[in-house]
């Protein structure tokens, strides 16, 4: 393997990828960039990066190849097709995928790269857009530190913390654990703000109070104020949270563990995607608790809401070998009491009937029964 890294190919220049790549330029690496949309790489090109017209051209002469993509299907296309990385990369090249993706796909890429005499490993990051811009990301690494020493400085250019999970795919599992915890925090603070607002409390004061105790989280401290201010600009998009929770729920099925909190969060973010919120920031979950006018002002379309699609307990779960971001079908959204009161009650302006409450209780009981098995 190459011991001196000077030329880096970077594929993917979105919300996270662009600032991460900028740090490599500042660190002195010769950067070759490619993205589906050249405009998104324009700032990097102006800063000194070399543009490549396709993936093959980008990776052919690189010492290390880095990717930061959106979905597992994107990763599969960029890595495993005839025009992709593994068919065109030189031997002894380091290959690092920073995308949050499928653990099984990460293992497949690792094995395929070994046949090309390359080392590939998964390295998803946490910290969001702010962490990417300030070089304070946390890197979760699917390899042993002693096995990847030449590329540790590259990762450290934008990641102030590193955790090694020693095997390909394990870092992806760790990232999914992070997303499961984060999603539950998001639902928790959205619940808390809805309860406070409906009870006539000052939501800013409630956020300050919760943040001083055991109920605090970074999600609450950094994103709840944005919810209160009506700021739904994405640091991390709703569509990507849905994708990550889908992957987490698929993996949970594979290892035979139930995640009722993640399932509830998935249903809420799935609903938010369906009504037009997929490109909003994850803090837009609070819009599901607000009146319709606020949702419309943020670009949501409640007419796209199909209640029946969220309360069908008979839908099949995804098979364990699927890697698509949208394969997880929600078992029940009545468990969240019609999006915790947001969807149906705000659209009708009326309280739920006792029949609806009984249905929600029944579905929640079914979920809990399944959880206890």
TrEMBL record:
Domain of life: Bacteria
Annotated region described as Disordered, given as residue ranges: 312-373
Pfam families, per database record: NAD_binding_11, NAD_binding_2
Domain 6-phosphogluconate dehydrogenase NADP-binding: 7-163
A molecular-function term among this protein's GO annotations: NAD binding
Bias type Polar residues, positions: 316-325
Full protein name: Phosphogluconate dehydrogenase (Decarboxylating), NAD binding domain protein
TM spans (from-to): none
InterPro entries in alphabetical order: 6-PGluconate_DH-like_C_sf (IPR008927), 6PGD_dom2 (IPR013328), 6PGDH_NADP-bd (IPR006115), HIBADH-like_NADP-bd (IPR029154), NAD(P)-bd_dom_sf (IPR036291)
Domain 3-hydroxyisobutyrate dehydrogenase-like NAD-binding positions: 169-285
